[in-house]
UniProtKB/TrEMBL annotation:
Native species: Salix dunnii
UniProt keyword terms in alphabetical order: Membrane, Transmembrane, Transmembrane helix
Pfam families per the UniProt record, alphabetical: DUF707
Transmembrane segments: 20-40
Low complexity composition-biased segments: 75-84
Chain segments carrying region Disordered: 75-95
Matching InterPro entries: DUF707
Protein name per the record: Uncharacterized protein
Length: 401
């Protein structure tokens, strides 16, 4: 027993040294492994369920990734963005066509349908036989039911070659079925919205692409002396990309440019009050129409649609900026005199406003219009300055910009 005790006691220092050395080398080895792999990914997954995302807790350089830790959807976001990336160029089994519309790169070009229309289709039969005719033009009116008689008179001035689209700002839609033509019209309803709000959201250039010309009209227009087919003929004859009918000169006009002339089919230039026109080829002396009854060619509208601001719903300022979509604007923007209309100036939409601070509804609407005009001008001027500065160009050489 004594021998065993002495023997164990004599080996104790060696055993302790061995343990210390083993521990030391273990720590060093672990440190080297840690340096080689600085990011530790601890993944907890539930393989029995595919309804919940994998939660990644990433430790990087001593910090827990807070965004990843707090958002269980992070891995899903990564997958979503990566799905839009081009496949490996060596992988010939995948389709990737950069010239396709954005988001459709993975589809074969022959299958992509980038444009649509407002043609009504049947729920039965052969799709190829749905359309007995395809209207070439589109006319839109932003309407309230109180103006139904005036709109009825307007619609009757447009042939079957026009698709009729009504934007309802008062929410009353079904009542319009008292008119037979209304049953074949397109109806879109959103309360207390303007025609430019509707235009930005429902007249995307790819939706109205089949139409050669798009009429975007107010509801308070007298059309006794107007014929849409004759108007189109004159627009084509004189090469107008943006136009409007002449306005009856005795009904409180603001601008000389849009006043009807009795001695011409079309005019493209006028004289205004002294000091109003810095250049005879610029608005309001030329390259100018008002926003109550504009008519756009397909190509012109594709540009103008992008000019409309989402939050500026009244369209004030557009009339002075339309020229930026056409070149040369003073030759391709004009007023059709021989097909003319009367602006009745019925403040129906103005009455859709709300009384605030003792002001009448229409007063608040008018103030918003003026404010939007200033905002539109400032945004456009700022964007142009930024463009020219970034491009290193001199804006004084930009043809009236």
């Amino acid at each position: 027993m004594g021998i065993l005790t002495l023997s164990a006691g004599s080996r104790k220092p060696n055993e302790t040294m061995r343990i210390l050395l083993t521990t030391f080398f273990g720590v060093v080895f672990g440190f080297l492994i840690g340096v080689s792999f600085p990011t530790l990914s601890l993944t907890k997954s539930n393989k029995s369920s595919g309804f919940f995302p994998v939660i990644d807790l990433a430790y990087s350089e001593g910090n827990l990734g807070s965004e990843t830790a707090l958002s269980p959807w992070s891995s899903m976001k990564g997958k979503s963005s990566s799905s839009m990336q081009a496949p490996n160029s060596n992988d010939t089994s995948k389709i990737w066509v950069p010239s396709n519309p954005r988001g459709a790169e993975r589809l074969p070009p022959g299958f992509v349908v980038a444009e649509s229309d407002y043609y009504l289709r049947r729920l039965w039969g052969d799709p190829k036989e749905d359309l007995t005719s395809a209207p070439r033009y589109l006319v839109t009116f932003t309407v309230g039911y109180d103006q139904r008689k005036n709109i009825d008179a307007c619609v009757k001035k447009f042939s079957e070659n026009f698709t009729i689209l009504l934007f309802h700002y008062d929410g009353r839609v079904s009542e319009w079925d008292e008119f037979e033509w209304s049953k074949n019209a397109i109806h879109v309803s959103a309360r207390k919205q303007t025609k430019w709000w509707y235009a930005k959201r429902f007249l995307h250039p790819d939706i109205v692409a089949p139409y050669d010309y798009i009429f975007i009209w107010d509801e308070d227009l007298g059309v006794e002396h107007f014929n849409a087919e004759e108007y189109i003929k004159l627009v084509k004859k004189h090469g107008l990309e943006i136009s409007q009918p002449g306005l009856e000169p005795n009904k409180g006009l603001t601008w000389q440019m849009t006043k009807r002339r009795g001695d011409s089919e079309v005019h493209k230039i006028t004289e205004e009050k002294p000091g109003w026109c810095t250049d005879p080829h610029l608005p309001p002396c030329a390259a100018f129409v008002e926003i109550m009854a504009p008519v756009f060619s397909r190509d012109a509208w594709r540009c103008v649609w992008h000019m409309i601001q989402n939050d500026l719903v009244h369209g004030w300022g557009l009339d002075f900026a339309l020229r930026k979509c056409i070149e040369p604007a003073h030759e391709k923007i004009g007023v059709v005199d021989s097909q003319w209309i009367v602006h009745q100036t019925i403040p129906s939409l103005g009455n859709q406003g709300e009384s605030q601070d003792g002001k009448k509804p229409w007063q608040g609407v008018k103030e918003r219009c003026r404010k939007e005009w200033t905002m539109f001008q400032n945004r456009l001027a700022s964007a142009e300055r930024t463009y020219f500065r970034t491009a290193g160009l001199d804006p004084s050489n930009s043809n009236g910009h």
